[in-house]
Amino acid sequence: MEKGSLLYEGKAKKLYKTNDSSVLWVEYKDEATAFNGEKKEKVSGKGSLTNIISSELFAYLRRQGVQSHFIEQVSPTEQLIKPLSMIPLEVVVRFVAAGSLSKRLGIPEGEIFPQPIIEFYYKNDELGDPLLTEDHLEYLELLSPKEYAKVKVEAIIIFKYLQKLCDQSGLQLIDGKLEFGRTEDGSIMLGDEISPDTCRFWRKGTKERLDKDVFRLGTGDMVSVYEEFYQTIKGVSAHV
Ligand SMILES: Nc1ncnc2c1ncn2[C@@H]1O[C@H](COP(=O)(O)OP(=O)(O)O)[C@@H](O)[C@H]1O
Ligand SMILES: [Mg+2]
Fold this sequence. Notes:
Blueprint: E1 3-9, E2 13-18, E3 24-28, E4 31-34, E5 39-42, H1 46-63, E6 70-75, E7 78-81, E8 85-86, E9 89-96, H2 99-105, E10 112-122, E11 131-132, H3 134-139, H4 145-168, E12 171-182, E13 188-191, E14 199-203, H5 213-216, H6 222-237
Antiparallel strand pairs: 1-2, 2-3, 3-7, 4-5, 6-7, 8-12, 9-10, 9-12, 10-11, 12-13, 12-14
Helix pairs in contact: 1-6
């Protein structure tokens, strides 16, 4: 497999073509951003941690029967993925109140929801990623009602598996974001990344954060916290 020309550069990753049109080469960058790109820093070592963790979590999900774009990790900072036509949505599942939800609705951080809460945000930096209702999704032709139902079920299944892994690792999964895309035949598939950049993880029984909040809040070193997260789940994921 040969790495080809740069296709797209985002905030966290670069996508390259390969000599095989059914495979993309993705490189995770040493760059941290928060608050819609307002806070931005080069963080050496971050790209390899998010790549290794994302690869580990996609592989774990595959063992649980969850299909995704992930093919394989090919270097510390790189993985091969299947190309998807991405749906510009952030599908957020919340088990515990934190972040923007706590702020917006005045719910104290740490409050556990009886049922996971699912939210859809329009992935559009110019508009500030607004929250969408089911009607908006249909009007904007992002998801048909059938697809909406399917994505909701799929997102909950994925996070239940991640929750199980966290639980057995002594972590509490607080919330997380997924992105989906369409394959050539039009079916919807999980894409993008799953890591402490896209989910919140607390040490069980504490509010010790092992995720991007340490960067958002400026309370810790991202690389050592992501490394700690990786060390915590690494041995466990193979046995769950
Ligand atoms: N399998 C895939 N095929 C095509 N694009 C993808 C795939 N997985 C993720 N992407 C897209 O790659 C881009 C780069 O990722 P990232 O750097 O996280 O971007 P962003 O700054 O938009 O969040 C994003 O637009 C993301 O949706
Ligand atoms: Mg991204």
